[in-house]
Each structure stands twice: as structure tokens, then as C-alpha cells.
């Protein structure tokens, strides 16, 4: 088990390195640089002054020099300073934002798993009934709706029209911290974030359970006189969950993308918002730092998924 | 005088709803099993033998399969006789795994891969006998020892994939025996196993049956297995029993052309070489099994039967007494 985790973490480090190279190159391929974004268009700087700024920040050096310069300090845990917020180090900036993002994603994922798994079970057990068909239609709408659309529509209906939930932020400004306030702010973005995933999990769960219900061991369970409820929940669902766990693990990376939209729409003070601002201002060090931290989180979550898988299925040997 | 049977099936008709039409998978089925007796139900795929056992268990596929008519009188461990064909789902559930145990064909797939063998054997004990987790787990280890699994305490903690095919089948037998049932239904329990393991499993089934005085319904397509384990045999063809009687009697003097054809097509040791030398192939039954949706008029076997006459196509022949405890559904049984 320890060997497995160590090996996976080592592979993860290599993946992070590859990710940093990729992001670095992509950023430099994009038109414009931090100086262009920094300069106020109404009072333009002279090209000479801009060039001087680039030289001071090292942006004129050859790309490999820039990359290895960044990497050398990054290995020591120093991700550099933000270009736009002068003098603010990247690491603390990113770390203070990771909490809210993880909270939002975890809440969204829990809702998606509970709704998706439960919906999938009901659909499979009542196959081809009006309930099943209704769930399927809802699931397809959920899968096909892009996050920016559901986020805006959700904001409009539930916050603006119905006034059920606050329209943005994580806490009410000026009020002290309270759990109920946090939950009130969390519930709507988390639900909207969960829609696509809940729908996908529901479809997978339904298909997987239908297949398992035809298995011989389900018939064996019935032949033993197990109550139908436990035939489903104890004997069938645990087997049907296996492919769904893989699905959940592999969609967490995609969930980051959704979270960025939701955070922008709901002004949620997380990584997404930070990243969007950083991209708009071409703040290279912040983009690098934020993608690396997100990448590290995804790698750890995928590792946790594999460990969960082994815990659910005794046939999988983690070694 | 025969003792009061444990299981007494009369006029059973089980139908499947396919394409808006009821198709009988089993018709006019009569079968009884005395306490301690082993009855083999033999037939080809699709002859209705498995449907018969599922009808008894109340495990016909929901919405599609149902018992259209007939009675299945079964005397449970408490001594009370009930008609299983009339019982509701919950009452049948209390009988399944408790009064009737069932062993299936595929030991590889009939155990749940995510639970330990011990847990799966303990489950019916907890459900039906109300034992605690700890007691049931201890009982499971004892049952594993009973079915001849060495080191049962360790095996009980293992998962099905850690056991060999033969050992898994022993475990499913232990599971079927868990609540000491009055009737064991074994549906092709040796078909998926190697020949050497088959013999061991048959021996085990015969042993546990003798020890417990249990009745057994043994479903198989293998006549060799029938000769080895059963007291009586019922041969099924196209959903009906065509011949039934004591095994020795039926094998020595088949009173139905189908049984006769089946017995002739079993190769005997040395016979294959003799036939080859003579240039004649192994005898087979000409034609193929008719579709249940489209059975011929009269006797279902008539189109393939070398003894068929015009009278065979008029009506389905009744099961008639052919003496020596044998019943035959052939109008010309005396001439065979």
C-alpha cells in the first residue's frame, strides 16, 4: 500500500512537471504579455519604457532561461511574486483561495454523488417506468447544459426572482462568520456545479445497475430469501458502484473547469476567480502557481479514488 | 404405500409473455418428490426444466414469467403444507433459502464478488433463523467444514475469487444447506465443472442428502449424472414430461421414443471406435427441438419420432401408466 502511494505520488510529481512546461509554453504562445495588460490604454507608455519593464521582469530572456529560472525557485517552494499585485507572493495568494474552491467542489461533488447514485438506482429498479423516463430526460438536459448557462439561469431564477439564496460571495460582508451564512451562500453554486455531474453519474449508475441486476449472484441472493431492498442495496449496488467510482474520479478534473465558471458568476472567492483574473491580466506567475496547485489536487483526488476502488472491490489488489 | 411427498406439483403451466402473447414454457407438469428422495429432471436446453425449478422457487423473471395454472404443494420444515403457486412474494421469500435451498450452475458467477464466502453463507442464517452475526459466522465455518473445505475458518474470510471452481461450488452448496432445508434444488450443479470435480460434487450432494434426509430435485441434461445420483427420473421435452419412472427401469426399458433416442445417443466406452470401424456415426435424434411458440399439433415429439403415426398428431397424449412405476406420454409405448 505504501509502495503504491509512493509510486503514484512520484508519477504525480512528473505529471506536475509536464503540466508546468505545457502551461508555460501555452502562456507564451498567447498574444500579449503582462506589460501590455498592465499598461493603462488611456495613458500609454512609450515603447522604450515598456521594453525597460520587460527587461526588469526578465520577460525578454530566452524561454528556456525563463522556465528554468522559474523552476529553480519553484522547487524550493517559492512560486514567485504576482506581476499585477506588486510584491504579493504567489503561494500564499493561491493557498488562501484553495480552501473556498475545495469547499465548493466538495459540496458540489457530494450533492452530485448522492443525487446521481440515488437517481440511477431508482431509474434502474423502475426501468422503463414514467419515473425512469422522467429521470432520463432530466439527466440528458443536465448533461447537455453548459455550466455558464446553468450558472446564469440558476442565479437569475433562484437569487434574483425567487430570492431563495444570496446572489454571490461566500459570506455576508460585515457579518461575523456563521455556519448558516456560509451554507446559505454555498448551496446554490454547489447545486449548480453538481448538475452536470449528477446527470452523468445517474446515467452510469443506471446502466451499471441494470447490468448487475442480471448477474447470477443477484439471483443467488434472491434464492437465499434476501429481502428485495437488500438484494438491491447490499448485493447489487456495491458491485454497480465500481465503474461509477472510476467515472467520478476521472471527472473531478473536469469539475475544476465548471467550478471556474460558477466562481466567476457567483463571485466565489476561490481559485477559479483568481485564475480568471490572472489570465485576463496575463499574470504569469499566478497562472502557473494556480494551475500547479489545482493539478496537485486533481492528482491527489485520483489517487484517493483508486484507493477507494480497492476498498470497495476486494479483487483489486493495491500494491 | 409411498410417504406423503415433500413436493407435489400438479398440472403446472408456466407461461412467458413474449411479443404480447403467452408462450407456455412448461405445460401439464406433474412431479412429486418424497422425503429423502432424489428426482432428476432431464431434458435439452429449452425443455422447461429450469423454468420448473424457478417456478417452485418463485423466481420467475418479473413481469415476463408467471404461473398460469396448477398447484405446487410443498411441505416445509414446520410440517405445514402450502401451495407455492398461490403464495405472495413475501411468504415465498421466507421459504426460499430456508425450507428450500438452491444450488446453481455457475459457481464462478453465482457468488457475489464483493463479500466474503463466510458472509454469504451466514446471510440466510441471520435472515431466516435470526442468529446474531457472530453465531451465524460460526455456523458458516461449520458448514464449510461439512462440505469438505479444508481450513474452513480461513476460507470463510476469503473472497470468491480466491477459491477454485470446485471449492466455490462447495461453498454454494454450504449456502443452500445453511438453514437445513427440506428440499434442495440443484440446477445443473456440475455442468460448469471439470469431470473429476463433477464426481466429487455429486458425491458430496449424495452425502449431505443422506445425512440430512433431504429431498432433492436435480436438474440436468447429463444422463450419466442422472444414473449416478437419482432415484427417479423425469424426462422433459418441449415443456412437458414425456416419461418418468425409477432410474433403473427407465434406463433399461425406456417407454418413450425420445428417452430411447437420448439413451442411444450417449456414447459408451469403446463404442465410438466400434462405430467408426463399422462406418456408422453415433446415433442422433433427427431434426431439432421445436420452438415453444410454434409447437406441432398433438405430440410435440411426433415430427422427429420414428414411431409416429397419424394418431400422434391428433391430440397431446396423456401420461399413461406403463407399469413398474413408469409413466409415458406415448400412445405406442407398448410397442417400444
TrEMBL record, chain A:
Positions of transmembrane segments: 102-125, 137-162, 182-201, 240-266, 286-305
Chief site of localization: membrane
Keywords annotated in UniProt: Cell membrane, Membrane, Transmembrane, Transmembrane helix, Transport
Pfam families per the UniProt record, alphabetical: BPD_transp_1, BPD_transp_1_N
Domain ABC transmembrane type-1: 98-305
GO cellular component, one term: plasma membrane
GO terms, biological process: transmembrane transport
Keyword Cell membrane in annotation: yes
Entry similarity comment: Belongs to the binding-protein-dependent transport system permease family.
The protein's name in its UniProt record: Peptide permease
Species whose genome carries this gene: Devosia limi DSM 17137
Automatic annotation (TrEMBL), chain B:
Name of a matching Pfam family: oligo_HPY
Sorted UniProt keywords: ATP-binding, Cell membrane, Membrane, Nucleotide-binding, Transport
Chain ranges of the ABC transporter domain: 7-263
Gene Ontology process terms (BP): peptide transport; transmembrane transport
GO molecular function terms attached to this record: ATP binding; ATP hydrolysis activity
Stated family: Belongs to the ABC transporter superfamily.
Protein name: Peptide ABC transporter ATP-binding protein
UniProt source species: Devosia limi DSM 17137
Lineage: Bacteria, Pseudomonadati, Pseudomonadota, Alphaproteobacteria, Hyphomicrobiales
Gene assigned in the entry: dppD
